[in-house]
Amino acid sequence: TNTCSQTTNLGIRGAMLFSVGVFLALVLNLLQVQRNVTLFPPDVISSIFSSAWWVPPCCGTASAIIGLLYPCIDSRLGEPHKFKREWSSVMRCVAVFVGINHASAKVDFANNVQLSLTLAALSIGLWWTFDRSRSGFGLGVSIALLATLATQLLVYNGVFHYQGLQYTSPDFLYIRSWLPCIFFAGVITMGNIGRQLALYEYKFIQEKTHQD
């Protein structure tokens, strides 16, 4: 029964993280549409048959994996993550993450280097403010690099499009310069949500055990 209960709780957490991931993917895409640089076509909400309808579910799946992985790695390393463990902090982290995306879409930078350095500083600032764990930083960097590489392969294979056309080199160089920073901030954000859900579940089980 205990194993069944643990599996159910894991499933619930995974489903919640998946939903958050899909929601954020749609919100962030709307921000990027304003820049006319989209990871998937702007009509994705009106038509699930658009050429990249699978992007939000992929973001949701990645969010669920990341959110479940973070607390798991914390317990494996024997380093319970105690820094800023409350929902208000998690909500602020999400807001900052959306803000970083908004900056990449709205603010006009002089060149790619300036954009990349600014977003890198903001992303590391997000990690320092809301995480500060070595495991969080390491996992964030690793997943961000893998995700950027995967995106690059998809672009070169013509899966992602730029306003209905394939990316041209300058377009993609512009996107590639900020993608790792956005991915890193996203990983830290989902890791924070995952940790908080795991903590909430742990407290709930402890209270229930105490009552029994």
UniProtKB/TrEMBL annotation:
<keyword id="KW-0472">Membrane</keyword>
<dbReference type="GO" id="GO:0036316">
    <property type="term" value="P:SREBP-SCAP complex retention in endoplasmic reticulum"/>
</dbReference>
<feature type="transmembrane region" description="Helical">
    <location>
        <begin position="12"/>
        <end position="31"/>
    </location>
</feature>
<comment type="similarity">
    <text>Belongs to the INSIG family.</text>
</comment>
<dbReference type="GO" id="GO:0032869">
    <property type="term" value="P:cellular response to insulin stimulus"/>
</dbReference>
<keyword id="KW-0443">Lipid metabolism</keyword>
<keyword id="KW-0753">Steroid metabolism</keyword>
<dbReference type="GO" id="GO:0006695">
    <property type="term" value="P:cholesterol biosynthetic process"/>
</dbReference>
<feature type="transmembrane region" description="Helical">
    <location>
        <begin position="137"/>
        <end position="155"/>
    </location>
</feature>
<keyword id="KW-0153">Cholesterol metabolism</keyword>
<dbReference type="GO" id="GO:0032937">
    <property type="term" value="C:SREBP-SCAP-Insig complex"/>
</dbReference>
<feature type="transmembrane region" description="Helical">
    <location>
        <begin position="175"/>
        <end position="193"/>
    </location>
</feature>
<dbReference type="GO" id="GO:0032933">
    <property type="term" value="P:SREBP signaling pathway"/>
</dbReference>
<dbReference type="InterPro" id="IPR025929">
    <property type="entry name" value="INSIG_fam"/>
</dbReference>
<protein>
    <recommendedName>
        <fullName>Insulin-induced gene protein</fullName>
    </recommendedName>
</protein>
<comment type="function">
    <text>Mediates feedback control of cholesterol synthesis.</text>
</comment>
<dbReference type="Pfam" id="PF07281">
    <property type="entry name" value="INSIG"/>
</dbReference>
<dbReference type="GO" id="GO:0008289">
    <property type="term" value="F:lipid binding"/>
</dbReference>
<keyword id="KW-1207">Sterol metabolism</keyword>
<keyword id="KW-0446">Lipid-binding</keyword>
<keyword id="KW-0812">Transmembrane</keyword>
<keyword id="KW-1133">Transmembrane helix</keyword>
<feature type="transmembrane region" description="Helical">
    <location>
        <begin position="113"/>
        <end position="130"/>
    </location>
</feature>
<feature type="transmembrane region" description="Helical">
    <location>
        <begin position="51"/>
        <end position="70"/>
    </location>
</feature>
<keyword id="KW-0256">Endoplasmic reticulum</keyword>
